[in-house]
Amino acid sequence: MATQLTATEAIAAGRAALLRGAWREARTRFEGALAVEESPAAFEGLGVAARYLWDAKAAVSAHERGYRLARARDDTDAAARLAAQLAIDAYGLGRISEANGWTERALMLTEDAGPSEGRALALALRAHVAMLTRNDPAETLRLAEQALGAASAAGSTDVELVALALQGLALVCSGSVDEGMRRLDAATAAAVAGEVSDVDLAESVCCYLIDACKRVRDLDRAAEWCERVAEIARRFDDRFMFAVCRVHHADVLIWQGAWEAADGELVTAAALFAELATGKRADCVVRLAELRRRQGRTDEAAELLAQCENHRLHHLHTGLLALDLGDPAGALEAAERFLRRVGSEDRFERVAGLELLVRAALSCGRREEATEAAAEIRATADVVGTPLLRGSALSAQA
Fold it and tell me: Considering the domain boundaries, does residue 42 fall inside one?
């Protein structure tokens, strides 16, 4: 007869299973621990395992129960960690306001406490939102530096490397490309070597590097890392991250003119996002709209754009479609709206909008605006000098 594990032993076995990507085994172990004795640690592990098994309801329920138990026991660090986990759950479901609320709760709980992994993770989540939602590299750098310090003090290598990667991405976006890429390379090398125990965080580190590569239009390097992350996602049966990689890879394929392959990647990713009930499907829809525009299927492109009006790329692709349909004034307005949304700090994200503005302004006879936009593209290309950016600068000045 098998000996029943103690709660502590079952939690340790569950954590070991998480490290191997054995999600069902991990779930069973944490459930076993809870059957012996309820604890915040067991609820946290159960929620993480359920998240990877795409049982969102069970993940949220476990993390909420763990959070309440930690608060009842006055265990501030555990409560902060569980609040951060609830933020991650909410992000995955597309509930951004709820996610922000849980992030702030984790920070409030630990404001006057000592070093805490929960606080470090919450700061990293804040930095993630500042970079990828608000396009604010300066704020991202400030928050990532705080997260790095908090993670180092708490002894959390996982969060430390995430914060380092976020610093790198923010530096790249600000124009400090060499320094930013060095930090991204260091964080990513450590992540793929196994220094990051949380698979989701390891994949996120790699995705920050892919994002940086796409922004500076280093497409070969981006494609290489897309495949590397997809390999990790397959090994750990992480369908969400596999779908995210397909979207990244589709961007590269569209740039390379491999439209049929890009179509396949986006359709696959959209189906996975729909199955997993996340808020990420719009990432596929807006890119499918751009692909249809390039294929000359303008009616389909317009229909798809109508489905993702709140997406950050909507104005850009609406403007490109307007230009194709002979509406340069509409294209110019869309370019200006896109650039206002991006802001002035994210130099590389601005390039696509500036390219559209040059074409639209020239078509409207507004040469001075086109010249100013072309000069900004040239200045950005001079910073990094990848062939595609240099080509964009030359084309804008032609």
Answer: yes
